[in-house]
Amino acid sequence: MDFSKRAVLLSAASVLTLALGSSTGVVTAAPTTGIEVPKVHGGMVILATGQEVHEVLGGTSPTMDLTVDKGYGHVKIKVKNTGTSNLTWSLQGNGREYIVKTVGKGSTLTWTSLNSFPNGMPSGKYVIQFRANGNKVEGDAWGTTGQFPSDIE
């Protein structure tokens, strides 16, 4: 059978090769195990992101949960304040408060762990607490984790 296109999908457990038949349009799939991937990936960029979360903010004290899995300690948090008051947020977890940031009304702030935690944050469950000096919090928040600094840039 002559195959004109091949795609290889990698997973932690196995590799699945999809072969598209050029003349028949038949698709076959055969699982393969024991494959070795060279360190040079042929120009292919592999992004390894962990959890990605998004929360529409409302109320006077909303929160957003963020889990940092082991090996995914590089964190990026983006907060967009659409309210009429300054918005303050804090990242709490593992029994402590890690950071506190303020976002001006109508502004957006992106924070990454790269300066404060160049080797990544500790794994665990985190809570991001949002406040607006007793006023209603309005906006959006996003959080993501990655294996490497380039995953969150």
From TrEMBL:
Q: Which organism is it from?
A: Paenibacillus medicaginis
- Claim: Signal is one of the keywords in the record: yes
Q: Please, which domain of life does this record's source organism belong to?
A: Bacteria
Which keywords does UniProt give here? Signal
Q: Organism classification, top ranks?
A: Bacteria, Bacillati, Bacillota, Bacilli, Bacillales
Annotated signal sequence is: 1-29
**Protein name stated in the entry:** Pxo1-15
